[in-house]
Write a structure and sequence with these properties.
The protein is mostly beta strands and 294 residues long. Helix content is 0%, strand content 52%. The protein is built from no helices and 28 strands. Strands 1, 2, 3, 4 and 5 form a 5-stranded antiparallel beta sheet that branches. Strands 18, 19, 20, 21 and 22 form a 5-stranded antiparallel beta sheet that branches.
């Protein structure tokens, strides 16, 4: 099912962690909340959320699901009260500390910290105050020498990973703001996306890893104990191979205008696919959303 409502490219998607609501943001400067309780009859859950003055590049729900954060090429972060999607409104001021477009934001798993990445080559760590839904700047993380494109926390939030146009992958201690080791290099072009995961072995133990996807058309899995690639780079055949997501036994990867879902091929898009996301495991983890330039 496709949901034509944005008037330009859809750039970012975020699932509400508690309810069957999907948020989408696009180059039309709008954010839309969708009711996906019935995937065959998706409807808008409320009015357009308008507040940014340029492309909406990233969305992130607070872990409690009541607050949605948005970031834009207008260099600002906004908060939205989405507890009632039909009466969504902004909360507090515009937060503008970055000197250039913001590409990615992420909430710490405990909900008390927000990270933002920008074309000013910096990552900012913010303290989030749930009482009045406000931010105060805590730390500026400097280490990238190009645009910072993507962010993600590990499961317990002790480590933040950032990637960028400098083809580097940096791990940060979220308490001190200091790098964890040296920047990691293996890609030969800008890194556009990053994801954290765990592999369970037969004896019940789990091993953490990161996946990074690049414009060099490869995905690399990194061993967090050695800070080295687990194996040689995996090259995808065409399209936007850097976009890959997993949920339980399902793995989805972009291949041109198609999506490879395990051994199946999903078709429907007529333009570049920009984003993939599975619904949260708390809901069922079986719904895959894709957005694109069409």
């Amino acid at each position: 099912t496709s949901f034509p409502a944005h008037r330009a490219q859809v750039k970012t998607l975020a699932f509400d962690p508690k309810r069957p609501i999907l948020a989408s943001g696009g180059y039309d400067e709008n954010i839309i909340l969708w009711d996906i309780s019935n995937p065959q009859e998706v409807t808008r859950a409320g009015p357009f959320l308008q507040g940014h003055a340029s492309f909406v590049k990233s969305l992130a729900y607070h872990p409690n699901g009541n607050i949605l954060a948005s970031a834009s090429d207008d260099k600002t972060i906004l908060f939205w009260d989405v507890n009632n999607p039909e009466k969504t409104s902004t909360i507090g001021p515009r937060y503008r500390e970055h000197l250039a477009a913001i590409n990615s934001i992420a909430f710490h798993p405990d909900g008390n910290q927000l990270a933002s990445a920008s074309n000013d080559n910096n990552v900012l760590l913010w303290n989030y105050h749930p009482g009045n839904h406000s931010l105060t700047l805590d730390k500026t993380l400097k280490g990238h020498t190009g645009f910072v494109t993507a962010l993600t926390y590990n499961t317990d939030g002790s480590v933040l990973a950032s990637t960028g146009f400098d083809s580097s992958f940096i791990l940060w201690d979220t308490n001190t703001g200091e790098p964890v080791g040296l920047p990691l290099h293996a890609h030969t072009n800008p890194i556009n996306s990053i994801a954290f995961g765990k592999i369970k072995s037969s004896n019940g133990s789990s091993q953490e890893y990161w996946l990074s996807g690049s414009s060099d058309r490869t995905v690399i899995q990194w061993n967090l104990s050695t800070y080295q690639p687990v194996a040689s780079r995996t090259e995808a055949p065409s399209g936007n191979p850097e976009i890959e997501v997993s949920s339980g036994q399902f793995t989805a990867k972009v291949d041109g205008q198609q999506i490879r879902l395990n051994k199946s091929t999903l078709t429907g898009h007529t333009g570049t696919i920009n984003s993939l996301s599975f619904s949260p495991q708390e809901i069922d983890g079986r719904l895959l959303l894709a957005s694109g330039s069409d």
